[in-house]
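Researcher: Please translate sequence to structure tokens.
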Amino acid sequence: MLQSPCPQSVFTEGEKFGGFEIKRVTPLPDIRQTAYEMIHLETKADVLHLHNDDPENVYAICFRTPPHDSTGLPHILEHSVLAGSKRYPLKDVFNELHRGSLQTFINAFTYPDKTVYPVASQVKKDFFNLAQVYTDLVLRPRLLKETFQQEGYHFAWSDENNLNSSLAISGIVYNEMKGAYSSPDSLMFKAIQENLYPDTVYRNDSGGSPEVIPDLTYEQFLAFHRAYYSPSNARFFFYGNISPQECLSFLDEALQGFEAIAVESRIADQPRWNAPRRVAGEYPVNPEEETQPSKAVVNIAWMLADNLDYETVILLEIVSWALVGSNAGPLKKALLESALGEDLSPVTGLEKDLKQLAFMVGLRGTDAGRAEAIESLIIDTLSQIADSGFDQDLIEGALHQVEFQAKEIHRGVYPYGITLMGHVLHTWLYDGDPLAGLNFSQIIANIRTRWNKEPDLFQKILRQWFCDNPHRLMSVMTPSAAYQQEREARENKFLQDIAVNMSWEEREKIAAEALRLQSFQAASDPPEVLALIPAVGIHDLSRELDMIPVTADSREDVVLLTHELFTNDSAYLHLTFDISHIADEWQPYLPLLCRFMVKLGAGKHDYDEMAKRIALKTGGISASLASGYNIETGKVWQKLIVHIRMLSRNISEAIQILDHILFQGKLTELSKIKDLVFEGKNNLYAAVVPSGHIFAKRTAASSLSLAAYREDQWHGRRQLQFLAGLTDNWDAKRDDFIARIADLKEQILCRNNLLLNFTADDRSLPVLLEETDALAARMGRTAFMPVETPLPVFSGHVGISIPAQVSYVAHSFPAPIYGNPLSAPLFVLSRLLSDGFL
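Model: Translation complete:
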């Protein structure tokens, strides 16, 4: 991906092509792109194309969609437009595209002020098929009333045969948001956003509040689409190796018949406050948890600079990282060492997906009565830093992280093109320069020049935007065992109040509409309608496979895999240790060992000093656990994987840091160890409600295979139970726990159960191999014998109680492993079941 320099320009500024005018052509050598900014003359739609040699092409349509209330209208519309259009009159076009195309990404996102519809594919015909259908869906949707009822909300009688039974309410978005309003993390962020920007659209929930969603009418739903889903309010984004001419020709045809219209969708600024404010809220917990002390969360938030002031945004990003981005951050350190709470609030950090940025920081696992003490500690710490200055290594580390992230070209959860689109929209959405955040080298160079002239630059930024900024909010969230019951009681009363005043004719109308919706949902699309969705054939596919170059070798006991690739001056190393010899009773300790390896001090360096070294010389070091099946033997493999990323110029220093982490890690930093244990428990607990489906799946599968059982032990319900037991009476268990961790580390870090995986370019690979040789040579050998682990047996179905308004259900089945002849057809069947029958 992205092997060549910037593609040669095919347009010049001011040139016209089809119905477009080329406004600007800009090479972006840092990321090997040529950017074209264009305008569609007939509709005034803005278009940006990032042209490069990446075969994973991305197309997205972005609209500003400011919510006027919390009925969730933008969110419901996001779901509904993908159901079908006039050209493609199916019930669920999105699902047909999902299962019937070669897409590598297809989805839609509702943000607080925008809605984005991206697709991606590596096959040109498939890419244009997806782009064609998506464009028609968003600009010419059918928006049937049945779709509105299905995706938004609808009423029905709990007994469809009894019009005197209780009234019920349901809907995809309605139920989805009931889940979101059960998540403590979501409720924390919601409280901050809505109260930090109370005079803007951000005071409303674009996703929808379950208590307000039923206020939405079908007529308002249609009117919102007419108001905002116009090409005149759209930003069209292209990325990849398909030529600009082809992309513009496609879009010119897709926009035929549309004209420019006036759309008022600008996002207004929040007026700045003269004094800080405070807000209080609640989040749901189980009854037994409410009686436990220290379950509150206290957050302090500031409204900062406008997203269009991009240099200030980067300066604030650096300051934010220096404050809380690593264990060396002085604000993070002060909070964690204060004993005022268990760990940092999960919403801590810089929020950039709003017109005016926000910074949030706080403590979780505290007492509401400590709110003022926490606020005072934060303000005092910031004032001290503003007076005395930042540690220079912290700022250098932050600059290095910005540089590394800018240079690293990779596909994570999203295609790389969607990652870049996110950068672009931070300014483009608000009528700013879309490329402001993509010229990374120049941005860093400008900041370094300014820093040299103003040695107190970052102190000034801290003082201006934090210490002297009265636009500050304190949010205190306390646990409530009655939260869910009270919401359910309000919902029941709402439904009862509607039902009690209904005439018999109105009751019959609800029954008829519910029946019509059921019939609509049950009906199949006719074959001739399904055939309207453009498809690819075998002849459209390349017979060439994308092969990742790999060379296998061994040195003494160690297996080596090397991949010579263009990596834009980055290098990667994985150390993979076999852990199948670790006894079952000690497996739950391994996730904490992973945390300790990369977050504690090492050698003569304390944990904060190590954090600075890691930031200065690496792109990050992580340790994780994975399990699966070996295709050749059919046996389960279990691995602990240490991963380090670095710029090529820093390979020697980065490997030295890794050496210290592996062989000189400190297990004597007792307060930090406690912080990490409690943080792990709190993070996993907070993940239960928003990721309940994953916890349910892991629990259900854990009796079927060793790999699934390990997933539950390491990352699921069993891990949460282990951490809850460990943190209960921690002081009495601490010494034995630390001794066990030290013993496990010694059992694992051995060369005869090690595999090394290297990825870099031809200049960096030899350096990486040479530096790692010494690392492997320091490891001893161990007697290695995999242990047998009996799987748990469930006597029946498993039920787990969680504090949420929604339930999650999973049913797992045994299946063959990769390599089995049935594996491929079962993959196809699972897609058909997921996207079809289920």
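Researcher: Any highlights?
Model: The CA atoms of residues 66 and 113 lie 5 Å apart.
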